UniProtKB/TrEMBL annotation, chain A:
Membrane topology summary: Peripheral membrane protein
PANTHER family: AMINO ACID IMPORT ATP-BINDING PROTEIN (PTHR43166), GLUTAMATE_ASPARTATE IMPORT ATP-BINDING PROTEIN GLTL (PTHR43166:SF9)
Signal peptide: none
Protein name: Ectoine/hydroxyectoine ABC transporter ATP-binding protein EhuA
GO molecular function per UniProt: ATP binding
Length: 271, 217
């Protein structure tokens, strides 16, 4: 990877002090009669890389979607950097937040999707500069400079003027990573980012993410089925089952000597 | 039965071509109106507020389910009584545009629905403002999908323009009719009008099919 040389130019996360960055308090999410998250409590400290593992349907992706405000919790509150995400304090009471408040808090969060979701009508460069220009108010030049740095980081400098459909899945996903980082979020959400890739393209994407995890202090929240990757980059692993965290700890502990029988079962099935 | 006379055709051609120019103007201006209004309806119908979707939905259904000719008569003969009057061509363009906007709205809706949900989610994840999401992300992708269908409505509208002759717009049919009324010989003028229609609409539809193959891959 040519990533290391360019990282000095790329400021990803401005302020890290190891304090609590994300906090879920008694968050419940239901889809119809199905309770996906059940009064979930958990916190993530600033700068940590946290991986969520567990069987499908255990609510891992829902956590990321709630943080990205792609879904709203039915009960409970979510705080990011001390600010309520979907609520506002008004007259000492918590009320559902207005669009403006949500937008402000959400700016601290970026997300990479399983299906990339690049904008097919824009070239790679504009995919990355669109939001910095129209959300952060950067000039076109500033945004392009930032984008070039990020394209170097993900190893795609020569593809700036291509359309996403001209790239492989792995390349598209790396563009999506660059696009998310261009907003300089404090938190990066990674939702099964290699699940839609051909097996031979997975390594390139994971290498980029390893580099980012190692060399920046961005907080990562990651849902993945790549257990080796999870073991590599995670400070903490949270094991989910039926909408609850049943066990959490450093990867060595969770992968080698889990306390819960359910965790043991799950890992023996996927490893 | 009269014999076909090419001399007669030559004599009436200038008038019919004048009519053709009016027909083309009505079609093009009507299309612009239909494309713009239809987009307004399509976006309004996606509003989260029932105060927007209900009246717009009712208007669209009403216009789509009543005949164009009745609407033209209403615009041309009834509205002036309420102090709103326009020239024949302007009235015709408003009528065609409004009527066809209820169809283009449906085309846009389908085109917008066909943009994957992930595009909206990516825009949200980047905090793109709603207006910017529409303009930069959703509509450019929707347009590619709707161009062929919109083109078909332009051709349909083109073929509906003779109705404007009923509100005294000097289109091709109006000219042919007035020629026939003075010469009592309708065969040539009406036939030439038919030929002019097919000479324009058939190549246009072929062109559209080519465009469709290019845009929708």
């Amino acid at each position: 990877m040519s990533a290391d040389s360019s990282l000095s130019k790329v400021t990803v996360n401005p302020a890290v002090d190891g304090s609590e960055l994300i906090r879920f308090d008694k968050v419940t999410k239901r889809f119809g009669a199905n309770t996906v998250l059940d009064a979930l409590d958990f916190t993530v400290s600033s700068g940590k890389h946290v991986t969520l593992i567990g069987p499908s349907g255990s609510g891992k992706t829902t956590i990321l979607r709630l943080l990205m405000t792609l879904a709203r919790p039915d009960e409970g509150t979510i705080r990011v950097g001390g600010e309520y995400l979907t609520h506002e304090e008004r007259g000492g009471r918590l009320v559902p937040a207005g669009e403006k408040h949500v937008r402000e808090v959400r700016k601290n969060i970026g997300m990479v999707f399983q299906q990339f979701n690049l904008f097919p009508n824009m070239k790679v460069m504009r995919n990355i500069t669109e939001a910095p220009v129209h959300v952060l108010g950067l000039s076109a030049d500033e945004a392009e400079e930032r984008a070039r740095g990020l394209l170097e980081l993900v190893g795609l400098t020569e593809h700036a003027d291509k359309f996403p459909t001209q790239l492989s899945g792995g390349q598209q996903q790396r563009v999506a990573i660059a696009r998310a980082l261009a907003m300089r979020p404090q938190v990066l959400l990674l939702d099964e980012v290699t699940s839609a890739l051909d097996p031979e393209l997975v390594a390139g994407v994971l290498d980029v993410l390893r580099d980012i995890a190692r060399t920046t202090d961005i907080t990562m929240l990651c849902v993945t089925h790549e257990m080796n990757f999870a073991r590599d980059i995670s400070d903490d692993v949270l094991m989910f089952d039926a909408g609850r965290v049943i066990e959490s700890g450093p990867p060595e502990k969770i992968f080698n000597d889990p306390d819960q029988e359910r965790t043991r079962q799950f890992l023996s099935a996927v490893l | 039965m009269n014999d076909w006379s090419w001399d007669y055709v030559g004599d009436i051609m200038p008038k019919l071509l004048d009519g053709l120019w009016v027909t083309v103007q009505a079609t093009l201006l009507g299309s612009v109106a239909a494309f713009a209004l239809g987009l307004v309806w399509a976006i309004a119908l996606r509003s989260p507020s029932r105060w927007v979707t209900w009246p717009v939905g009712a208007l669209v259904e009403f216009v789509r389910n009543t005949p164009l000719l009745v609407q033209l008569f209403f615009l041309f003969f009834v509205l002036p009584g309420w102090g709103l009057s326009f020239g024949p061509l302007t009235t015709g363009v408003i009528g065609l545009g409004l009527h066809y906007s209820t169809y283009t709205a449906e085309v846009y809706r389908a085109g917008i629905d066909a943009v994957p949900r992930g595009q909206w989610e990516a825009a949200t994840a980047l905090s793109l403002p709603r207006g910017r999401t529409w303009v930069a992300v959703i509509l450019p992708q929707a347009f590619r999908r709707v161009v062929p269908a919109l083109g078909n409505y332009v051709i349909a509208m083109f073929k509906d323009t003779p109705m404007l002759s009923a509100i005294t717009v000097g289109d091709m049919l109006f000219q042919a009719n007035s020629i026939g009324a003075t010469t009592f010989d309708y065969m040539e003028p009406i036939t030439v009008v038919g030929v002019l229609f097919i000479v324009i609409s058939y190549p246009t539809s072929v062109l559209l099919r080519v465009l469709e193959r290019r845009l929708v891959r």
